[in-house]
Amino acid sequence: YLKNSHFIDKVKQNVKVTGARLADRHLNLAVTGLSGSGKTAFITSLVNQLLEANDSAELPFFSVVREERLYGVKREAQPNLSLRRFEYERAMQALDAQPACWPESTTGISQVRLHIRYKKNRGLSRYFSEDALLILDITDYPGEWLLDLPLLEMDFAQWSQHCDQELLSPERMQLAGEFVTLRDSLDLTAKGDELALKHIASVYTEYLNQCRSAGFQLLQPGRFILPGELAGAPVLDFFPLSDVQVQQTSQRGAVKGSNQNLLHKRYEHYQEQVVKPFYTQHFKRFDRQVVLVDCLSALNNGRAHFNDLQRALNWLLTSFEYGKSNILSRLFDPKIDKLIFAASKADHVTPDQQSNLVKLLDSMLHNARKQMQFDGVATESTAIAAIRASQAGKAVHQGEDIQILQGTDAQGTPIRMFPGDVPAKCPGDNFWLTQGFDFPRFAPPQRLEQQALPHIRMDRVLEFILGDKIR
Ligand code: GDP
């Protein structure tokens, strides 16, 4: 009997070791969103909530914490040494400064790896392994890069025509004056003049940057605004032609070595050597994706900007449309199985408006993805504040109780306000005529020593992304 029980113990032990190995899981989570949508704040908070999960973080909807199965989370060296490291410590330093500052925004791709040790929950696995490890790699990359995917299906003439359409917007045209003059006076048949092209490309980039500062989001090519390691490289020295130029050049055909020929070649190089490699080297590996959308700033900035965000979303979502005819399915087999859309900075509206914010986001996504199929991908939309910078309170207005927000501005002056009602769907003309939506930029909260960052619904996001992987 003794011998037998020894044998069983031994088997159990072996099974446990193998089980633990089998149970090791790896998850590639990607976080994206257009510039300023809150990626840096989001990843900083996500890492902070996980590191503090067993201490000061408030994560009631995160099952592994609620069920007291989380042993601990540690930062580990990132796997891809040629990618920038996500600067978590620097972001926390900014938030811990006196007064607290928002961390510097994302400008390229970066990565952070976490090891999550937990106890398994499944009935059967009791006999295999008690403990398990999830290796979580989080990749942060600019949503602007996703706006480039449709470029793969346009030739230079088609892309130029698309950009010319953009210039029909009077606000954009006003910013594009210098670029348009230079572009229209370029002799396309003349021998390629690298310096002239470089100069016009830099004026075009400046125009895109001004559009961005003015709150526009649909800006292409994506690397012109956030070039990452390509800053200054000749592959970025091209720009779109006007409709008239396109007509002329299509009749004439490009002369080898001419300005026109150089522009064509660079556009094609950009497609092949910049856009495609992002998808085949990085995007291809993502298992799950968070897309942050800053609906509130767009509402704040007015109709043209809101419509622009809507159009940018339409373009951006083509990267997740995995129908058979999709260009990504032709390049490789995408494997994202969960996709979460989050309206960011929800602490800018009172709690009673947050469900409207989710509905608004849904309505924008629905406009964008009416004909889209997310084959085999579970999607979810929510409203979050990665770092909650305001407190909800009550006030009496014209004899009625209303909800208000309280926080401070960047100078430390207290703010008490009702920011306005959020429309529950993409707003029509009336909303813009009578628009009363307005919010200030809150300063980040002053954190007490070692307290987890305050947030709204980050625990639900964690549950959606990780819950099934750490059962
Ligand atoms: P990124 O460009 O996508 O990396 O955007 P950031 O994370 O840098 O966010 C841009 C700005 O949005 C920040 O500097 C903050 O002012 C604001 N922001 C981002 N997340 C939040 C949030 O959860 N709450 C509030 N109140 N502001 C936020």
TrEMBL record:
This is ATPase.
